[in-house]
């Protein structure tokens, strides 16, 4: 079925159900960023494959609302589908709700499938439309009837991690969550988000590409805890281990019945991480406490075991990247390399490392103008052939049993231009400024974001994405609750958090530059004036120096770069052969 035909079928379903406008979010019942195939509704409906967007359909208009990361991609993928790109002004804001308010009249109906919309999204739509007399129905599923070959729920087995890997037992994590609930005087809690569930139960799976999670829900109160998961995904040993930790196991689909039968006085639900269908099923007699999942905050602060494992994963990742960039440099002149082929080659180098499980997201290998698309993914149609000239941006990561990595590097394949050097050096300067900043306890992510952007602002340059995101421990590469971006999000940077620092600069149609390391926030000083923190850089991979314009760097930036590259050589050389060691020694020479 062509996209235009799918759109016609949905519109027919809207007529039959009396729906004047239909919203399709990019989500699933767990409000995941990355989706199992069954819930890739936007891709199936419109052809757009980006990880963030919302479709809105009326009888005379169909649009995709998405942010600047995807403007070029969406324009290309929506051509001929019947859908138009609507450019978001503010990333993550439900601007389509305002559009609907201006398009619809009192008495008309807006529908969406509550299994696919977060409570926060549903509330944003309701808050905008209900005061105008526009009805909102969050229980309208128009896709199931027309999506005839819809994939089933993933059936891959799940497994448990031992405490030697995680550093904290499931029983202890449940105790910590119950303590948080008791402090808030909350009697029960329902967890939908997959990475929270994975962290709490020390469980991993393969239900979502690149994210080692398993589909499930978790209910707990002071006395009991139940995991709702598809039958057959856990073996008897795992079920027994969970039972010993105080966790019973029930079929996945029973979660929706269980939430209707909650009998506690109140229940905590995270509005950003719970779907509207679950929220709306809570009995009227039960008070819903809307708050962030306690596990989301606990999970973000890594323990000493997780940090030690992560440092080991970083070394393995650095070895793989060193081998990759050496291979790339030696083979680019052949004219046989492409964006897709080098992504496969890089995955092969990672797969050769001990305890490699998967990549942590689809590799972004952007050559020349493709590097200016922050979330670019090469396709058969766009796949560019590399030449011995121009800039190549590679943003990639790995999932290892002992950690998750995410790194971006830019290399010149030849014929370096002065403009490229200036832009590269300013981005590098931003990475260094963010990585070396000292800040008082309680600092928020938007303050780190500003410190990182300053070298670019000073030269009247900027970038449209955030500066950093949290990273999980052998979990999702994008992890909350903290983030380094311009939004005034009131979440402090805490000791033990792992976050990316990744400023960039993009010249559409020419090239893109982004230099990304992961850092660990730690306390360095306590005195009369308070507690102060800084960052430990975790990522171990050389930063190219042939693109650096030293005249734009202060001595402190040059010292940091030289010391960092020397540290990279020290960390990786014992795991490299003679030729690789010699190559890396040349790449890490002081400037």
TrEMBL record:
GO terms for molecular function: metal ion binding; metalloaminopeptidase activity. Residues 531-591 form the Peptidase M24 C-terminal domain. GO terms for cellular component: cytoplasm. Residues 7-129 form the Creatinase N-terminal domain. Keywords: Hydrolase, Metal-binding. Gene3D superfamilies: Creatinase/methionine aminopeptidase superfamily (3.90.230.10), Creatinase/prolidase N-terminal domain (3.40.350.10). InterPro entries: Creatin/AminoP/Spt16_N (IPR029149), Creatinase/aminopeptidase-like (IPR036005), Creatinase_N (IPR000587), Pept_M24 (IPR000994), Pept_M24B (IPR033740), Peptidase_M24_C (IPR032416), X-Pro_aminopeptidase_P (IPR050422). The keyword Metal-binding applies. Residues 309-519 form the Peptidase M24 domain. The keyword Hydrolase applies. CDD domains: APP. Belongs to the peptidase M24B family. This is M24 family metallopeptidase. It comes from Sphingobacterium humi. The lineage of its organism: Bacteria, Pseudomonadati, Bacteroidota, Sphingobacteriia, Sphingobacteriales.
